[in-house]
Design goal:
The chain is α/β, with parallel strands linked by helices and about 110 residues long. It has one domain (about 5-105): Glutaredoxin, CATH 3.40.30.10. The chain is built from four helices and five strands, in the order βαβαβαββα. It has helices at about 10-15, 30-45, 65, 95-105; strands at about 5, 20-25, 50-55, 75-80, 85-90. The radius of gyration is 12 Å and the shape is globular.
């Protein structure tokens, strides 16, 4: 299951992580975000130890989404070595998200 983090935890959990990190910017009222929950949770289990997956509720944490230009949700930003390397917006298939994760691990 993907961990929920806050603006205060972002630097430690994402930018200083020793593995790639997929950040899911979401909100509880967002339909496409809800569709992504089971996919994100499955991928979190499948990639455990190789990729960290975290969620940020944009209603409760405005600083981080603003910093990275998140204008619509769900937005996913993949970080490697503390830098954003890939961004994708909207509901995606599990296979599409896996392609993004696999690409950053090479």
């Amino acid at each position: 299951m993907a961990n929920a983090i806050s603006d205060d935890q972002f630097d430690q959990e994402v930018l200083k992580a020793n593995v790639p990190v997929l950040v899911d910017f979401w909100a509880p009222w967002c339909g496409p975000c809800k569709m992504m929950i089971p996919i994100v949770d499955e991928l979190s289990a499948e990639y455990e130890g190789r990729v960290k997956i975290v969620k940020i509720n944009v209603d409760e944490n405005a600083q981080t989404p603003g910093k990275f230009g998140v204008m619509s949700i769900p937005t996913f930003i993949l970080f490697k070595d503390g830098k954003p390397v890939s961004t994708f917006i909207g509901a995606k298939s599990k296979e599409d998200v896996k392609k993004e994760l696999d690409a950053v691990m090479q």
